[in-house]
Structures are given as structure tokens and as C-alpha cells.
Amino acid sequence: MLSAVQSAFWDNGYAGTSLEDLLAASGLGKGSLYGAFGDKQRLFLRVLREYDEANDRMLRTWLEHADRGVDVIRRFATGVARDPSGEQARRGCLLANTAMELSANAAEVAAEARRSYAATTAVLTDAVRRAQREGDVAPDRDPEVVARAVLAGQLGLIVLGRIGQDPETLATTAEALVDALLSAP
After folding, report:
1. For residues 47 and 133, what is the distance between their CA atoms, to the nearest angstrom?
2. In the 8-state DSSP scheme, what is residue 36?
3. Closest CA to 142 of 176, 150, 78
């Protein structure tokens, strides 16, 4: 049920998702929806946190199972460009979409975005350190600075995807971003 609610918010944004959309997505009546989740904002924050936690688990799993640390960084940064149809890129990332829509006026959303991006940066920092040990990233690069730059670049790619950048250009840009940020020794 929450995945359907998440999809409604993801597709329409917070402001564009009506109570009727939430009732249809959840299959609940108005009283049951409010009884289970409180108001729209609390439901949205729960969905957003679950999304963020799932992404964190996914990144940690990638790092745990990757052959090389650099593979995690490359996969993270280029993921938005992997769908040749461009549909995933146009949908964007729920957190990035939300941060752009609500962070200026919703302190709880801004705090959740900062928490989630800090967690992502921590995993990417670990991946950069591993890539340095494996000889794929110059040892003199600050791992946390590189990780933040990879995240910032990936967020830029998400914006380009959302505005309909053609998939081939998006993929080329993503690869150039990773190559420039990692600059192997």
C-alpha cells in the first residue's frame, strides 16, 4: 500500500497529490487513512523516509558486493542515465524532486534531505576510500570531498533527466562526470 502512495507522490509531487489520489492509491477510506497515518504531511514524510532508507540499504549492498569501489561510484553517478528510453530520468528521484519542491518551506523535509544526503555521502566516501586502496582513485584526493562532488553531479544529472535531456547525451555526460571526478592516478 505504501509503495502505491509513494508512486502517487513521486509522479505528482507533494502539492499535486490530492487526498483523492491518496485514497485511491492506499485503498483506504478517509477516516482510515488519517487514523493510520495522521495527515498528508506525516504520510508523506513516512513514505519519504522509507524511500531514503531503502536507497541507503541499496547503496550499502552495492558497496558490500561490488568487485571494486570505483564500480559503486560509477553505478551511483550514472544510474539516472541507464534507461535508454529516458523514462526513469524524466521521473527523477523522489528525494531530489521533493527537496526542490518543498525544502525552502518545509523544515522537516529539508532535515530529511540533509540526513539522507549525509548517509549517501558516507557510503560514497567509503567507496572512494576503497577505490583509493585499489588504485582506482588518486590517493591524494579527499574522499569526502570527492563523494560530495559525485552526489552533487548525480543530482545535476537528475535535473537534466527531469527536463528531458536526451538519453544519449545524459549517458555521455554521466560518464564524463565520473571520469573527471575520479581522475585515476
Report:
1. 37
2. H
3. 150
Structurally, the chain folds into a number of domains equal to 1
How many angstroms separate the CA atoms of 72 and 69, rounded? 6
- Judge contact between 117 and 149, C-beta under 8 A: no
Asked whether residue 120 is assigned to any structural domain, the reply reads yes
The verdict on residue 171 lying in a domain is yes
d(CA 21, CA 120): 30
What separation, in Å, do the N-terminal and C-terminal C-alpha atoms of the chain show? 48
Task: Supply the range of the domain harboring residue 97.
Answer: 47-182
**Domain for residue 162, yes or no?**
yes
pLDDT in tens, 27-63: 888 888 888 888 899 999 999 999 999 999 999 999 9
Q: Among candidates 141, 145, 176, 144, which has minimal Cα distance to 160? A: 176
Residue 156 is part of a domain; what is its CATH number?
1.10.357.10
CA distance 172 to 185: 22
pTM, whole model, 2 decimals? 0.91
Q: What is the rounded distance in angstroms from the CA atom of residue 7 to the CA atom of residue 47?
A: 10
